[in-house]
Amino acid sequence: MREDLAAFIDHTFLRPDAVRADFTQLCKEAVHHSFATVCVNSAHVALCTSLLADCQLPIAATVGFPLGAGNSAGKAAEAAQAVLDGASEIDMVCQIGALKDGLRDVFIDDVRGVVDAADGGLVKVILETSLLTDDQKRRGAQWTRIAGAAFVKTSTGFGGGAATEDDVRLLRAETGSDFGVKASGGIRDAAAADRMIAAGANRLGTSASVAIVTESRMQDRGY
Fold first, then answer.
1. How far apart are CA 33 and CA 28, in angstroms?
2. Over the range 101-121, which residues count as b (16 or more CB within 10 Å of their CB) and which as e?
3. Which option is the CATH number for 5-220: 3.40.50.2020, 3.40.50.300, 3.40.50.1220, 3.20.20.70?
4. Reported pTM
5. In Å, how far from its chain's centre is CA 119?
6. 35 phi and psi angles, rounded to 5 deg
7. What is the DSSP letter of 134?
8. Residue 126: which of 101, 150, 102, 106 has the closest Cα?
């Protein structure tokens, strides 16, 4: 198991019924375990910024989550506000229908609007791979890169499917070695996390982060 597994993980909490205490706990756990980021819905970025005021831990905000079906101007505005509130990374849901229909310019303009609004922040584009054919996944990865984003991401975790090793391999093969691939959805234990990394993911999204790194560290120590 990997001693540095925590550095791959966006420590995620996206439940609609989340309350302030949930984010207090999330941020404490993220600092304690040195996760890559905390990942929250955009409405909670300002709170997490205040909770992490004495830390250097980045905050990732979701945009257009979980459907991606809002208008592009709204997504850009949401991203811009999240950055003002303290987010340095944006996890946006693409226009899935446009991707399936082959509407290249619609897809790219949607993503590019968020990339511009992020003002240099790292943007990850969620394709919702469980809803796509392999050709559509490849197309989404190509267009994501053209649009100026930094990562392509498998899933929201809310779309009826989860990350798979095959999808991660496909996205890695399509984007090349110098681009980000984030596996998200259904990653519940250290073995699954390691498989996703071995398949080519360089970031993981999960709400089971603490259990995963605790299990990994115990295995490293021979327990």
1. 9
2. eeeeebbbebbbbbbebbeeb
3. 3.20.20.70
4. 0.96
5. 18
6. -70, 165
7. H
8. 150
**Per the residue annotation, which of 10, 85, 91, 110 is the catalytic one?**
91
Please indicate whether residue 91 is annotated as part of the active site. Answer: yes
Catalytic residue among 110, 153, 167, 194: 153
Q: What is the pLDDT of residues 97-142, one digit of tens each?
A: 999 999 999 999 999 999 999 999 999 999 999 999 999 999 999 9
From 184, 170, 178, select the one nearest 139 (Cα to Cα): 170
Per-residue CA distances from 12 to 161, 178, 199 (Å): 17, 25, 21
Active site residue 75: no
Mapped onto helix, strand or coil, the DSSP state of residue 215 is helix
Is there a catalytic annotation at residue 124? Answer: no
Residue spans per domain, the chain = 5-220
CB atoms under 10 Å from CB of 22, counted, come to 14
